[in-house]
Amino acid sequence: MEQAAQLEEWDIVLYDAPGGGGAALGRVASVAADELRVERLEEDAANQVWIVHGAEERVPRGAVRATLAADYLQLVDPDRVSNPHGEHALEAYRLLDQAAAAAVAAAVAAAGPAAGRGGQQEGRDGAE
Known about the structure:
This protein has about 130 residues and is mostly beta strands. The protein has one domain. It is about 10% helix and about 45% strand. Strands 1, 2, 3, 4, 5, 6, 7 and 8 form an eight-stranded antiparallel beta sheet that branches. Strand 1 (about 10-15) and strand 2 (about 25-30) form a beta hairpin. It is globular, with a radius of gyration of 14 Å. The N and C termini lie far apart (about 30 Å). About 30% of the residues are buried.
């Protein structure tokens, strides 16, 4: 894990979730002077990847603990009701440093499944 110095869109960051929700992992959607918009990533332990959740939340720059190296990939959406022919994909990331991946998974798991849900979140279209 690297300390977050210069943040850019699509960086993968470990951050303190808004509302005291503990640690969370996300992809930077946009960067402003004093805050970021981050898309939360959710762990898919079976595939050893982190899937883009889609909802954005506002995060102060100071809440970023570290940036992580990750490979971008897409997985077939397993929902056969809305995706019967497998044309739709989920965006995902595989963390490259296995020790960091284990530490991130433990930190996020310790925060619980509702970590940060009390923060300001918005959907992809900007509507809450």
